[in-house]
Amino acid sequence: MKILRAFFRLWAPLLISMLCLPCANSQSAVTTDPPFYGPYNAIFLPDGDGLRKPADAKAVRKEDSIGLQVEVHNTGTVAALANKLTLVNASDGSRILPAYYSDNYFSLLPGEAREIEIEYPAKSAAGPAQLTLRGWNLEPHAIPAR
């Protein structure tokens, strides 16, 4: 088992980067996420050590809706897998629905960044909103929306 674990620690970043290459057709890119999310990822990959919590999410009011932009950076040395942003009320943590995300589950390779856009009706929020960020090998974070 030690040999297998050492193999995956050494080769996992290369294998994941190969799988994360954009799958494209003649029209546009289809996906940049790896085509797997199974329990074996957590066994062989070390804990995420650098998915940096964004300072805040930028909010922009658009008529009857609010748009948020948040940029997430992986400054660590391992891939951050199956990350998810969730829009919640800051006061009680209840979800704000409906909320429309440009990307829901996403993975980031070391050094990679991704900007996520979220839009929701202004009447859906009961006060200030915040985002929660969680992932397979990531400690949960709360991100205030300003």
Quick tags:
146 residues, alpha+beta, Immunoglobulin-like, five-stranded antiparallel beta sheet, four-stranded antiparallel beta sheet, 11 strands, 16% helix
Question: If you had to describe this structure to a student in words, what would you say it looks like?
Answer:
This protein has a single domain, classed as Immunoglobulin-like (Sandwich), CATH 2.60.40.10. The protein is elongated. A hairpin with a 4-residue loop joins strand 1 and strand 2. Helix content is 16%, strand content 42%. The chain has 146 residues and is an alpha+beta fold. The strands form three sheets. Strands 3, 4, 5, 7 and 9 form a five-stranded antiparallel sheet that branches. The longest helix is centred in the first third of the chain and has 18 residues, at 2-19.
Give helix and strand order, one letter per element, not per position.
HEEHEEEEEEEEE
What is the CATH T-level topology?
A: Immunoglobulin-like
The CATH superfamily name is Immunoglobulins
Main sheet overview: 5 strands, antiparallel
Amino- and carboxy-terminal Cα gap: 48 Å
Radius of gyration: 17 Å
Number of helices: 2
Beta-strand percentage range: 35-45%
Poorly predicted regions are 23-31, 35-47
The average pLDDT value, as a whole number, equals 76
Q: How many distinct domains?
A: 1
The helicity comes to 10-25%
Overall SS class: alpha+beta
CATH class wording: Mainly Beta
Number of strands: 11
- What would you say the CATH architecture is? Sandwich
